[in-house]
Amino acid sequence: MSTFPPPPPPSAPEPPTGGPRPWFKKKRVLIPAAIVAVFVVVGITADPAKDDPDTTARNTIAAAPTESTVHDAADEPDAVVAVKPEAEETPSTTTSAPEPTPASGTREAPLPMAEVAAVGEDYEATVVSFTPDATAEVVGANMFNDPPPEGEVYSLVRVRATYTGDNEGTPGTDLSVGYIGADGRVYVDHDCGAVEPSSMSDEPRVVAGGMVEGNFCLRLPAAVLGTGSVFIEPLFSFSGDEKVWWAAS
C-alpha cells in the first residue's frame, strides 16, 4: 500500500488575460483619476490672495490714489510754494591794519623847523633855518674859501643847541649836521671844505643848561635842493643811528 498522499483535485482554469476587461474594472480606475484632475485644475486656477478678504482690502487701499496725486499744489488757490531765498553775499568785515604812523623826527616824518628835540644823551637842539644856496655868503666869509665845484652850492644850516650833560660840551665839535636828498647820498658838514660865517665851531664850551647858536656848512649838488631833509646827530655815537630829522623848508 502506497504511503504518498492523494493528488489534489484539479483547479478551475483561469480566464484568459488577453481579453477585454469588464466595464466596472475600467471605471474603478478612470473615476478616481478624473476627480484628482478636477482638484488639480481648481487648485491651479484659484488665487488665494483674491479669496482672502484681508488681502483684497489691503490691495484696494494701496491702489486708491491719495489726494496729493489727484490734485496738484499749483492748482490749489491757497497753495503757497516755499522758495528758498538766495544767499546774499556778506561784505567782508576784515580790514587791513592801518599803517603805523612814523615817529616824529624821522626821515619819513621830519620835525618842523624851530621844534626842539633831544639829540644824543647830552643835547637838546633845533634847526633854526636852512639856506639852500648860500654860496656867495660862504665864499665871502673867508679869503681862503674857494667856490664850490660846478653844479654844486654851499648851503648853511643854523642850529641852536643846549647842553644837558653832566660835564662840559662843545656843540661845534660834539654835533654833526647832514642832508639826504632824492639821490639817496649822505652829505655832512665836515665835507664842506669851507669856513662858514658865524660858525658853530667858534662858539665857546658850555655846561649844563648852556645854549649856543651857529651855522654848519654843507656842499650839495644843486639838483638835490628841495628834495630832502636836514638831520642833526652826535658826531661820535656808540648806540647806533641817533639822527633827528627836520624839514628843510
Textual characterization of the structure:
- By secondary structure, this protein is of the alpha+beta class.
- Among the domains are: 36 residues, no CATH class; 131 residues, Immunoglobulin-like (Sandwich).
- It has six helices and ten strands.
- The strands form three sheets. The chain has a four-stranded antiparallel β-sheet with strand order 1-2-3-8. Strands 6-5-9-10 form a four-stranded antiparallel β-sheet.
- β5 and β6 form a beta hairpin.
- The protein starts with 22 loop residues before the first helix and ends with a strand.
CATH class of the domain at 117-247: Mainly Beta
Strand proportion: 15-25%
Series of secondary-structure elements, N-terminal to C-terminal: HHHHEEHEEHEEEEEE
- The termini sit apart by 185 Å
Major sheet summary line: 4 strands, antiparallel
Radius of gyration over C-alpha positions, nearest whole angstrom: 64 Å
> What's the tally of helices?
6
CATH topology assignment of the domain at 117-247: Immunoglobulin-like
Considering the chains and any ligands shown, give keywords for the structure.
20% helix; 4-stranded antiparallel β-sheet; 10 strands; 249 residues; alpha+beta
Summarize the structure.
The protein has 6 helices and 10 strands. With 249 residues, it is an alpha+beta fold. Among the domains are: 25-60, no CATH class; 117-247, Sandwich (Immunoglobulin-like), CATH 2.60.40.
Any chance you could write out the topology, listing elements then pairs?
Layout lengths: L22 H23 L2 H4 L1 H11 L3 H4 L46 E3 L3 E9 L3 H5 L12 E12 L4 E2 L1 H4 E6 L5 E3 L17 E2 L3 E11 L7 E6 L9 E4 L2
Antiparallel strand pairs: 1-2, 2-3, 3-8, 4-7, 5-6, 5-9, 9-10
